[in-house]
Amino acid sequence: ILLAKLEIFPDELELRQGVADRYSGLLSESDLVKCPVVKPGLRSAWAQYSLVSEKRDAILDRLRSLGIPTAIYYPLPLHFQGAYRGLGYRNGDFPVSESTSEAIFSIPMHPYLDKENQERIASIILEDA
Question: What pTM was computed for the model?
């Protein structure tokens, strides 16, 4: 199965890029969320499409109440995770990481996500914006 998947991987990367571009087009004009940015000359495989919003919890509640899957990668900043606990990091040592972990969330992202579903997801996110 993996070999068959590898054959279509370049095509799926292009499809994922299209999904990411569409999400960004639908969401980037709003002050409610910050969309991901890929620097010129670089490329993302778009394993996730993650947004940052101070109103994350309200947005997640709306999406989840309508059966739209969401995820938080990663709810706990790296320096607070078990492997780094013994290093003595404290709250405030990495303020950007800490604030991002409280505001980031991911929405559905796959190469076959159609325009209508993306528009629905975006409109739910932007509700009350």
Answer: 0.91
- Which residue range is the domain that position 122 belongs to? 2-126
Q: Given CA atoms 65, 118, 10, 8 in this order, what sign does their dihedral have?
A: positive
Query: How many angstroms separate the Cα of 2 from the Cα of each of 5, 37, 115?
Result: 5, 29, 27
CA dist 9 to 18, 21, 42, 102, 111, Å? Answer: 14, 18, 18, 33, 10
The number of distinct structural domains making up the chain is 1
Kindly report, residue by residue over 44-81, the tens digit of the pLDDT.
Answer: 999 999 999 999 999 999 999 999 999 999 899 999 99
Q: Using pLDDT thresholds of 50, 70 and 90, give the confidence band for residue 129.
A: low
Torsion of CA 61, 64, 44, 15, to 10 degrees: -140
DSSP 8-state symbol, 80 = G
Determine the residue type at 29.
Answer: E
Instruction: Give me the pLDDT at residue 114, please.
Output: 97
**CATH assignment of the domain containing 109:** 3.90.1150.10
Cβ atoms 36, 62 nearer than 8 A? no
